[in-house]
Design goal:
With 398 residues, the protein is mostly beta strands. The chain has one domain: TolB, C-terminal domain (Neuraminidase, 6 Propeller), CATH 2.120.10.30. The chain has two helices and 26 strands. The protein has a four-stranded antiparallel sheet with strand order 1-26-25-24, with helices on one face. A hairpin with a 5-residue loop joins strand 22 and strand 23.
Length: 398
């Protein structure tokens, strides 16, 4: 997120895994290879188990140092990874990516200008790498963002918010691209009102249909996009059924370090049909009910978590297997050098649970994924400062 990171990104070159690293990886693999593949976990209220016991916290039990770390920097030098997604179970075989792979989307080019990166890279957990990250897709639309996900029907969805010189003065509205398993663009959609800076996204995936909840960083809104998969003579395509604005009123502001601040990470709870929105400039997390079916603009929704003691410009946002929410701090609002690049856990009722610094410098935390079971959770985060994708796992006891 911060711009003065070029040397750190370029200096990272992972080596072949040591025997110790391999042992750690093998311990983590039962969760890693199934990330995003399990049936939806029942979310407790508030973070309680089915037997009524309080679910164990995740973040306070994570190791400070990543168990595994992979570079997201490809041969062309792109860096500043923003988006992170897992290829889900059931994804069609025979392409460049497979179920269990991780994809990371880069926002900066090798010149370190924000909004000019073009690459989506592939990481296969368990396969050591000795060189640059493997490129899955090279985009004609630069500035790939946190509006990023993979549909199990066989498509990657990638949003972009471009600039020409790395400054807010040249920022563009961007678009959403739908990319097939072989890295080919099958559809690009844009809209001057409903897709005005797609910065973050959550997916409600039903296979042949899906809903995309897209946070627009320039208009301070959230748009729901309903899509369906088409089948014709052995080929699959994407049709957009509808686009509707379901939230608005989030604060937007240019920022010298972060480029722009506004609504960012989005998380969807299918059990309660609620989306949560991390609004960086408001320094708060909001909730919007009936997200999959509402046809109204619900404003910002209700504040779930607003905690100046721990929030510092929240960006990434996910629902964890224990029912809590995890967010990452970008440090551009309410920043504190003593608490840099933090991962924060809180309950859906707004109770703080725990925090963990992901990088000793500010501005490193962005996208994240949290998956697993009620007994073991793996949290995967991108570090914008080092251009890496980092794994941390913990056994939960409660």
């Amino acid at each position: 997120m911060y711009r003065n990171r070029q040397s750190r990104c370029r200096s990272f070159r992972p080596s072949v895994l040591s025997l110790e690293d391999r042992a750690l990886l093998n311990a983590a693999l039962p969760d890693v290879i199934h990330l995003g593949l399990r049936h939806p976990v029942e979310l407790r209220h508030p973070a309680h188990s089915r037997r009524g016991h309080v679910a164990p916290p995740i973040v306070p039990n994570l190791p400070a140092t990543p168990t595994l770390s992979y570079t997201a920097v490809p041969a062309n030098g792109d860096g500043n990874p923003y988006g992170l997604a897992i290829v889900p179970k059931g994804f069609p075989k025979g392409g460049m990516i497979n179920a269990g792979d991780l994809l990371a989307a880069n926002y900066n080019s090798n010149s370190n200008l924000q909004g000019t990166g073009t690459t989506i890279v592939k990481i296969t957990p368990g396969q050591p790498t000795t060189g640059p990250a493997t490129v899955f897709f090279n985009s004609q639309a630069p500035g790939l963002t946190l509006a990023f996900g993979v549909l199990r029907s066989g498509f990657v969805v990638a949003g972009n918010v471009p600039t020409t010189d790395g400054t807010f003065g040249t920022i563009g509205a961007g678009s959403l691209q739908f990319i097939d398993k072989n890295g080919n663009v099958v559809k690009t959609i844009s809209d001057p009102k409903l897709l005005d800076g797609p910065w973050g996204m959550a997916v409600n995936d039903h296979g042949d249909t899906a809903q995309l909840f897209v946070a627009n960083v320039l208009s301070g809104t959230v748009t729901r996009i309903d899509v369906k998969i088409t089948h014709h003579r052995g080929h699959e395509g994407i049709d957009v059924v509808s686009m509707i604005q379901i939230a608005s009123g989030y604060s937007v502001a240019p920022n010298a370090a972060a480029l722009v601040l506004g609504p960012a990470g989005v998380a969807y709870n299918a059990h309660t049909d609620t989306i949560y929105v991390a609004s960086s400039n408001d320094n708060a997390i909001y909730a919007i009910k009936h997200a999959s079916r509402t046809r109204l603009d619900n404003g910002t929704g209700a504040i779930v978590y607003q905690d100046p003691a721990h929030l510092r410009g929240p960006i990434g946002l996910v629902i964890a297997p224990n029912g809590d929410l995890l967010t990452t701090n970008g440090d551009a609002v309410n920043g504190n050098p003593s608490f840099p690049s933090e991962l924060i856990e809180f309950t859906p009722q707004g109770q703080f649970v725990g925090q963990l610094s992901l990088d000793p410098a500010q501005g490193g935390a962005f996208a994240l994924v949290a998956e697993g079971s009620s007994h073991r959770v793996t949290v995967i985060t991108v570090d914008d400062n080092t251009g890496t994708v980092n794994f941390r796992s913990t056994h939960l006891r409660g």
